[in-house]
Design a protein that fits this description.
310 residues; alpha+beta; globular
Length: 310
Amino acid sequence: MLQARSRPNPSRGSWPRARWRVTLVPLLALLPWLWGCGPKVVLDPVSDKPDEFSVFLRRTVEGKRPIPKNFAHPATISDVRLAHILANLAFENSEGKRQPVIQSVRVYPLAEALNQAVTRASEDDEIVSIVYGTSRRLGLFSSRRVTSFRMFFDDQFMNLEFYDIELELEPGEGKPGRDDSYRVPEQTPESAPRFKVLAGQALAAANARTLQVDWRDPYFARPVSLSVRGNRFKRRSVLMEADPEPPVPLPDTSGATSISAEMRDAQIRALDQLDGLRRQGLIKEVEFQRRRRLILQGKLDEAGYEPDAE
């Protein structure tokens, strides 16, 4: 005997499943598009020297627009002044010993690369650097180490936040082209670091990882003595070969309007540029002193200051 089949009830059974399939298909198709719309980190290489250091700009983009950071970029600072700042950075390791953050052999090349990055950076870019070095144990065994940090300027300070300092790498780690190469963190690690950055003249430690640098301070116009790791020998800084001069006060502005921040920054840059000319042997000492007096008097044009030469 034949039995009539019951028709599916639109409110039950397979009909709802069919409707779910119809609804899910376009949603699944949209997932890649929705995933691509989330924030992502964009890297812009500036300088890459294998086995030495890498410098790049980093920004976070959502959609097609960078997330605003409102940094004081681009900034104008000479590579000589940057080198003096790097040479003054020190930290305390896990054993409580004071050590320089950047090995002396890296100071000046790294400063040049950072200067290029600062000039190119937008207000939404931070400057990130990975610096490689080596250290010897008992004069026989060498280990590969890495220091990484981000740098950005605000209206008052140059800020340096360190992810790692002198972190010992596994053999082969950090080598270009390897899957296990060192990767700089995108966010500040939450764990306490095994190092502590140290405050100094015109250097304020905001926390164990972060330094606020008063980069306009005249202190950074003077050279420092750099030493090679292991204290095997010392050498005069190659950044400026002449002995530092006693500071000369800025001209008396009583009865006149105070020097603007722009003029003060221009004077600092002009002095750095002039120091660079003397360091390269392009001007004699008499001419150096003449131009220096003009700069301190605010007569930058007469001193031959060229902003584009920075």
